């Protein structure tokens, strides 16, 4: 069976559990509780994205003797960064001590999933990725249902953290043997300085990218409150999260193909990008059209009367989700091309555009749905620019 097919099966199992449980969870948890959990996940996502200093993104283009060195440093960094930054996030966002702990666990889980995915992709150990997709969804859902009645204030957070940590562990175990078979950790003279320089730029870019990903829950929480954030969070669970997992299913295959092409002949990587765009564009267009019709679906009958605004948020995010399905799997191509500066500039410009447009919509009196719609269009334009950068200038850039 092809790796992409195995990953897709794991994805269907995991995401199927999430989907089947959503109506039950929406009746167990209130919008405010789900909104708080979404804020914890958003904060953990930002910290987790920078927790490894993005050293894992260098694995695709690294020499064999560098892989174990990068893996070891990234593993230590993710624990240190989560421990140091989660209390800061908790103070800024007003989390309880328990929610601050969940922020740290979520951050470590996200970092471990990203690191182990890159290792498995480099070593072509893709079976573990497939298993991890199933474990994450099933584990997360089981914990959230189990804690829904006895501990509703922390059930969503606990389930999310458990699913991420379990998925990272499964991927790491699957790649363990291949990692041990690589040469001992060793860097060429001067390579350490190159890695630090690249890591600084990648971390800055990751901070911008992760903040954009977490922007909608944070902006909605800040401008419109926890109940509205809960409505958005359920919409993301129904539409945006599955799209993200679909991208994650394809991403390892794209990384492996694009990385191999880039190491052999950087110009040949352009053909890989175009081939994947042709495959994914029809999927993105169909998904966008289907999600735009979400307000016509009586979701409140399925989720409960408190969730009557979910369909509007799904439709508002439709352009963004369609673009993510097409361009999301190509998100690491600039890094593989060793164009960290270009990646950083793109992330920072996109971040400024998202927050600027959101603030402008609120300033002129727009509601939360209008803000989400405007941000969605900005993200579509950002994806288009990113693809153009990848295929328009496929030349080598030094790190």
UniProtKB/TrEMBL annotation:
Subcellular location: Cell membrane
Keyword entries, A-Z: Cell membrane, Membrane, Transmembrane, Transmembrane helix
Membrane topology reported for the UniProt record: Multi-pass membrane protein
InterPro entries: Poly_Biosynth_Transport
Entry protein name: Polysaccharide biosynthesis protein
Chain ranges passing through the membrane: 36-55, 76-95, 101-120, 195-219, 239-260, 280-304, 310-336, 348-365, 371-391
Organism: Microbacterium stercoris
One GO cellular component term noted in the UniProt record for this chain: plasma membrane
């Amino acid at each position: 069976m092809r790796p992409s097919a195995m990953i897709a099966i794991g994805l269907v199992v995991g995401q199927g559990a999430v989907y089947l449980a959503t109506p039950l969870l929406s009746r167990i948890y209130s919008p405010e509780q789900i909104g708080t959990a979404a804020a914890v996940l958003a904060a953990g996502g930002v910290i987790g994205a920078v927790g490894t200093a993005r050293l894992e993104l260098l694995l695709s283009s690294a020499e064999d003797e560098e892989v174990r060195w990068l893996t070891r440093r990234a593993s230590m960094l993710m624990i240190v960064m989560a421990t140091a930054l989660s209390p800061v996030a908790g103070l800024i966002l007003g989390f309880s001590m328990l929610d601050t702990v969940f922020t740290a666990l979520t951050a470590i889980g996200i970092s471990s999933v990203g690191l182990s995915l890159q290792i498995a992709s480099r070593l072509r150990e893709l079976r573990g990725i497939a298993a991890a997709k199933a474990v994450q969804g099933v584990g997360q859902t089981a914990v959230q249902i189990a804690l829904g009645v006895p501990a509703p204030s922390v059930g969503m957070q606990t389930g999310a953290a458990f699913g991420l940590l379990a998925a990272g562990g499964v991927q790491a175990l699957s790649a363990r043997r291949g990692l041990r078979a690589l040469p001992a950790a060793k860097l060429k003279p001067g390579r350490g300085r190159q890695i630090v320089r690249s890591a600084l730029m990648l971390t800055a870019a990751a901070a911008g990218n992760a903040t954009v990903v977490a922007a909608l829950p944070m902006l909605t929480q800040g401008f419109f409150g926890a109940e509205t954030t809960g409505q958005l969070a359920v919409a993301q669970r129904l539409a945006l999260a599955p799209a993200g997992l679909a991208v994650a299913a394809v991403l390892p295959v794209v990384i492996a193909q694009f990385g191999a092409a880039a190491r052999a002949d950087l110009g040949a990587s352009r053909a890989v990008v175009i081939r994947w765009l042709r495959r994914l564009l029809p999927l993105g267009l169909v998904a966008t059209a289907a999600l735009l019709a979400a307000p016509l679906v009586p979701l409140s009958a399925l989720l409960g009367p408190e969730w009557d605004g979910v369909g509007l948020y799904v439709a508002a995010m439709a352009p963004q989700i369609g673009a993510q399905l097409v361009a999301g799997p190509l998100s690491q191509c600039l890094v593989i091309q060793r164009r960290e500066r270009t990646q950083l500039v793109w992330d920072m410009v996109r971040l400024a555009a998202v927050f600027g447009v959101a603030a402008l919509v609120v300033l002129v009196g727009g509601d939360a749905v209008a803000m989400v719609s405007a941000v969605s269009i900005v993200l579509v334009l950002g994806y288009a620019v990113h693809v153009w950068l990848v295929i328009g200038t496929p030349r080598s850039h030094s790190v």
